[in-house]
Amino acid sequence: MVEITTAEPEKFWDPIPGSLVSARGVELKGPWGHVFGPLDLDIDEGGVTVIAGQAGAARTALLMALCGRMRLTGGSLTVFGHVNRPAKVFAQSAIACLNELDEVRPSVTVRDMVTEQLRWDSAWYKLVPRVHEDAVERMCAEVFGDVPLPALNAFVDDLPEISQLLLRIAVANTRRPPLLVVGRTDRIADDDERLVFLERLVALGERQSVVTADVNPVPPGVGVRGTVDLRGLLGAGDVGVMTEGR
Question: pTM for this one?
Fold first, then answer.
């Protein structure tokens, strides 16, 4: 007698209205040891949520896990109603400003970055020529807002820090998925530029759920929807997995 079995259906949570992420006992262990966890956290849908915690491998790994770029080793992570299904979350999210994923070489120009992304977004059989200023404006205007757009032939490495980060967001966010994860907020040294950067994320949060991280307090009145305080719970992490900003 042959026993016929069917694949176990995907388990869904009973979502709280307006909830985007629910994590219970999530943890990550790398080849060389413990990275973070176990942690519990909840993130509401819409607007900007800041994860407050020390910069390092643990924080980077958590951000990557929230958008389906890293598989956890323990606990339950529910995003968009998908329980422990990183591939499902990957398809509905974008991530920017993490050197482990989108670091830009010094020799790359603004034109190079925009052209390459348009080629990735186009069908394989379409020829996409090198772009001009109008393509940079179409891709970047919403993200940059009142911040001046970068010059077409400028080297990305020569741009102000805030322009570099906004450009990386614009390139990563062309599909406008429901979830946008942004790292490196606390790498902006100038307080005024950091405030402008957060304001640009808040503007994007009117159409997407935006999650970022910062070791510094969030300035009052900037419009950030919520803060998840993981200070003391996210250490430097396992440097054998990854290191942030090195």
Answer: 0.88
